[in-house]
Design brief:
five-stranded mixed β-sheet; 4 helices; alpha+beta; Cytidine Deaminase, domain 2
Amino acid sequence: MKSDQALWNDLIERAREARSRAYAPYSGYAVGAAILDAEGRVWTGCNVENASYGLSLCAERVAVARMVAAGSREIAALAVATRDGAPPCGLCLQTLIEFAPADASSLGVALAADEGHPRVFSLSDLLPHAFRTSRLRRTEAEGRSV
């Protein structure tokens, strides 16, 4: 079994590899992501831009889509590689929270830049007041069905 440091090193390397395949002709900002799922499998993604910017896909959401398409539903860890170590955008954070453990503080997110040491945050650090599915559930006491 890999040590925590070896696991993070592997995820970061896989995110960097994915970043090398990014399609970012408009922004020039390549991003790679590597997700470790609850079963120990790794899913990667890179950003895929489009001339109609709203149609672009973020690396993190591509990795989530690959994970879900394969039947997995829970993220255990995530590494994101960019030139400057930027965190995921708000859309990606909300997508990640959908597949995070109930305690999002247990999901580590490594942000790796081209230089320097990666920084590791919890998903709840990056999205402290997440909108969770529990907010969609209504009780009979409220006069609505669950």
